[in-house]
């Protein structure tokens, strides 16, 4: 059946091609006969009309992607409702901007929020006849052709509208994949044609003000600054409406080449280009001669601050939030990194600040104690240099440097290690400076960074599950791995589940159990049966009975394990799961002392369940989400 359908379709296509070829041949014979019989002036008219008709047919064929020759073009729907990637903004519960999610760091603005001088500088430099044409500047095209013929070097003839088309619809990549695109020289012609067609359509749908606004919201200013608002903040720490004339000229000057004229990378080239833009403004009566003279003499002054995805409040929280939101976005058809969502979270910025300060203060103290205790001795050693080197080498094998060197020297491990032990300038963490430059080899930098103690901190509202503060480690720039969601042994904090299971089994806080040495059946790492006995932190067993309340409050290990065995380790596991623990728990006597790995997030949620009268909440990150138009979507 399928073969018959394909065969029938091919036959119809062949018949269609035959018909088209026959009609073209018949039209050509009529055209030649008419042309021969016409007078000279009629022949001229026929030729001109034919050229116009052929050009219009060519435009139509490109627009409809005739026989897949020219590649896909933007649809009318896409042109009428263009989509611009916009950063999603994260807010704290008290209204503070915490950070952004983005592929292109862009926050759209309205026409009224842009400095009028920015508009004047843009038009004077990029498209002086912008208000006169309808998307295509034929005068500019003619001048470009003339320069090409006369000097072999054409000036740019793209209008602002055409540049907007190129930026917004990616006409030089996404759509230009037709068969004609494989022919050298033809590809560029097809791409320019699409830009012309789409530019004219864009001018039909939008006013000049709207086109200028879209352009300035779309264009790339380098340094991961997309759009005028982000560019103004990145280079001058201001907003688009407060940009000065010389700042506007600097930003417009960058549009010719964002790297070549980047004011941070090439200040002198940027200053010269800025003055070219100022001269254009003067020629178009945007500024006076006196203003031009004074402004062009000014030095280039920046207040540069390039934003990174980790910048802002509570980076570990925002990292965990993104993981939560990605699933929601997938289910609801939103793009977290491009739809300009406004995400209002449960986190309190003041509590977060206090949490970070407390962590920094306490961990610096812990680190000092650690360094004083260990001195120059490495804490990962096993009393042999060989074991110490193995530990560092295993960490080195996970680095990008090791992978690059291994690919370069696939059969020469000595060369790999030689390069890994060569000192070079690196940035490492420091409690006083935050980040400091040191001259270390890759291996020594691993040894340096591995000596730091780590932690996590969470604060949660027991009644609601709202997360109020989240610190995933001591410094996000150097350790992005979040310890709040990493599985670690909880130690004695797990005893809460043991005594909760005991209460559920009918035991009370005043019931007594003997603090004594006792062995239990267990298994070693190789799953071989062994005898295991818990040790008290004091190293002493009193041999006396004590209440469960006393044993719990004093964290007596022997009693905790005895109680867990009495009520059943499976009951302890079941209680822990019901209270909020999600990671696997091993049914072994050591579980009572926190031998199984759990996350801090689960532990905090479980303790909140107890404080909430046994009612467990799912940890809550978000209170509401709005789309870019302000509609509440969550």
Automatic annotation (TrEMBL):
<dbReference type="GO" id="GO:0008955">
    <property type="term" value="F:peptidoglycan glycosyltransferase activity"/>
</dbReference>
<keyword id="KW-0812">Transmembrane</keyword>
<dbReference type="GO" id="GO:0008658">
    <property type="term" value="F:penicillin binding"/>
</dbReference>
<keyword id="KW-1003">Cell membrane</keyword>
<dbReference type="GO" id="GO:0008360">
    <property type="term" value="P:regulation of cell shape"/>
</dbReference>
<protein>
    <submittedName>
        <fullName>Penicillin-binding protein</fullName>
    </submittedName>
</protein>
<dbReference type="InterPro" id="IPR036950">
    <property type="entry name" value="PBP_transglycosylase"/>
</dbReference>
<keyword id="KW-0133">Cell shape</keyword>
<dbReference type="GO" id="GO:0030288">
    <property type="term" value="C:outer membrane-bounded periplasmic space"/>
</dbReference>
<keyword id="KW-0511">Multifunctional enzyme</keyword>
<keyword id="KW-1133">Transmembrane helix</keyword>
<dbReference type="InterPro" id="IPR001460">
    <property type="entry name" value="PCN-bd_Tpept"/>
</dbReference>
<comment type="similarity">
    <text>In the C-terminal section; belongs to the transpeptidase family.</text>
</comment>
<keyword id="KW-0645">Protease</keyword>
<dbReference type="InterPro" id="IPR050396">
    <property type="entry name" value="Glycosyltr_51/Transpeptidase"/>
</dbReference>
<dbReference type="InterPro" id="IPR001264">
    <property type="entry name" value="Glyco_trans_51"/>
</dbReference>
<dbReference type="InterPro" id="IPR012338">
    <property type="entry name" value="Beta-lactam/transpept-like"/>
</dbReference>
<keyword id="KW-0573">Peptidoglycan synthesis</keyword>
<comment type="similarity">
    <text>In the N-terminal section; belongs to the glycosyltransferase 51 family.</text>
</comment>
<dbReference type="GO" id="GO:0009252">
    <property type="term" value="P:peptidoglycan biosynthetic process"/>
</dbReference>
<dbReference type="InterPro" id="IPR023346">
    <property type="entry name" value="Lysozyme-like_dom_sf"/>
</dbReference>
<dbReference type="Pfam" id="PF00905">
    <property type="entry name" value="Transpeptidase"/>
</dbReference>
<feature type="domain" description="Glycosyl transferase family 51">
    <location>
        <begin position="96"/>
        <end position="281"/>
    </location>
</feature>
<keyword id="KW-0961">Cell wall biogenesis/degradation</keyword>
<dbReference type="Pfam" id="PF00912">
    <property type="entry name" value="Transgly"/>
</dbReference>
<keyword id="KW-0121">Carboxypeptidase</keyword>
<dbReference type="GO" id="GO:0005886">
    <property type="term" value="C:plasma membrane"/>
</dbReference>
<keyword id="KW-0472">Membrane</keyword>
<feature type="domain" description="Penicillin-binding protein transpeptidase">
    <location>
        <begin position="456"/>
        <end position="628"/>
    </location>
</feature>
<comment type="pathway">
    <text>Cell wall biogenesis; peptidoglycan biosynthesis.</text>
</comment>
<keyword id="KW-0808">Transferase</keyword>
<feature type="transmembrane region" description="Helical">
    <location>
        <begin position="46"/>
        <end position="70"/>
    </location>
</feature>
<dbReference type="GO" id="GO:0071555">
    <property type="term" value="P:cell wall organization"/>
</dbReference>
<dbReference type="GO" id="GO:0006508">
    <property type="term" value="P:proteolysis"/>
</dbReference>
<keyword id="KW-0328">Glycosyltransferase</keyword>
<dbReference type="GO" id="GO:0009002">
    <property type="term" value="F:serine-type D-Ala-D-Ala carboxypeptidase activity"/>
</dbReference>
<keyword id="KW-0378">Hydrolase</keyword>
């Amino acid at each position: 059946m399928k073969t018959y359908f394909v065969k029938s379709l091919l036959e119809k296509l062949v018949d269609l091609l035959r018909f088209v070829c026959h009609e073209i041949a018949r039209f050509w014979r009529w055209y030649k006969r008419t042309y021969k019989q016409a007078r000279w002036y009629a022949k001229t008219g026929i030729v001109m009309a034919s050229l116009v008709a052929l050009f219009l047919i060519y435009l139509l064929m490109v627009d409809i992607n005739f026989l897949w020759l020219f590649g896909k073009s933007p649809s009318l729907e896409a042109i009428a409702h263009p989509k611009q990637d916009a950063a999603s903004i994260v807010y704290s519960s008290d209204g503070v901007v915490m950070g952004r999610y983005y592929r292109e760091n862009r926050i759209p603005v309205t026409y009224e929020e842009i400095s009028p001088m920015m508009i004047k500088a843009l038009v004077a430099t990029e498209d002086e006849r912008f208000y006169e044409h309808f998307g295509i500047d034929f005068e500019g095209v003619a001048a470009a052709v003339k320069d090409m013929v006369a000097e072999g070097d054409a000036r740019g003839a793209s209008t602002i509208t055409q540049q907007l088309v190129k930026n917004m619809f990616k006409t030089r990549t996404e759509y230009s994949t037709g068969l004609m695109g494989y022919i050298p020289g033809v590809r560029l012609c097809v791409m320019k044609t699409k830009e012309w067609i789409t530019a004219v359509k864009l001018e039909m749908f939008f006013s000049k003000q709207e086109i200028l606004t879209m352009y300035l919201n779309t264009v790339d200013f380098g340094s991961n600054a997309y759009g005028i608002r982000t560019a103004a903040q990145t280079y001058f720490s201001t907003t688009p409406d407060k940009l000065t004339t010389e700042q506007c000229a600097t930003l417009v000057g960058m549009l010719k080449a964002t790297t070549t004229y980047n004011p941070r990378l090439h200040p002198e080239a940027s200053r010269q280009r800025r003055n070219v833009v100022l001269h254009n403004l003067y020629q178009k009566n945007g500024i006076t001669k006196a203003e031009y003279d004074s402004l062009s003499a000014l030095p280039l002054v920046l207040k540069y601050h390039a934003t990174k995805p980790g910048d802002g409040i509570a980076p570990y929280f925002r990292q965990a939030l993104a993981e939560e939101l990605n699933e929601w976005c997938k289910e609801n058809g939103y793009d977290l990194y491009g739809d300009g969502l406004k995400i209002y979270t449960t986190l309190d910025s003041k509590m977060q600040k206090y949490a970070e300060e407390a962590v920094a203060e306490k961990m610096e103290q812990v680190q000092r104690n650690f360094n004083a205790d260990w001195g120059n001795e490495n804490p990962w050693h096993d009393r042999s240099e060989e074991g110490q080197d193995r530990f560092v080498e295993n960490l080195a094998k996970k680095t990008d440097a090791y992978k690059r060197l291994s690919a370069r020297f696939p059969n020469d491990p000595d060369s790999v290690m030689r390069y890994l032990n060569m000192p070079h300038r690196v940035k490492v963490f420091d409690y006083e400076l935050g980040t400091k430059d040191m001259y270390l080899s890759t291996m020594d930098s691993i040894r340096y960074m591995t000596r730091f103690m780590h932690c996590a901190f969470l604060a949660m509202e027991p009644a609601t599950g709202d997360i109020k503060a989240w610190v995933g480690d001591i410094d996000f720039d150097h350790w992005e791995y979040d310890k709040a969601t990493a599985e670690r042994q909880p130690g004695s904090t797990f005893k809460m589940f043991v005594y909760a299971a005991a209460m559920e089994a009918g035991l009370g806080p005043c019931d007594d159990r003997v603090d004594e040495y006792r062995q239990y059946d267990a298994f070693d790492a190789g799953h071989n049966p062994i005898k295991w006995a818990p040790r008290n932190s004091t190293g002493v067993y009193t041999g006396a009975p004590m209440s469960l309340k006393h044993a719990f409050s004093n964290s007596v290990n022997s009693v905790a394990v005895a109680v867990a065995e009495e009520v059943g380790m499976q009951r302890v596991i079941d209680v822990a799961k019901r209270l909020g623990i999600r990671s696997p728990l091993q049914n072994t006597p050591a579980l009572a002392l926190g031998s199984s790995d759990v996350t801090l997030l689960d532990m905090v949620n479980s303790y909140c369940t107890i404080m909430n009268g046994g009612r467990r909440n799912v940890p809550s990150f978000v209170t509401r989400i709005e789309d870019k138009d302000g509609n509440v979507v969550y």
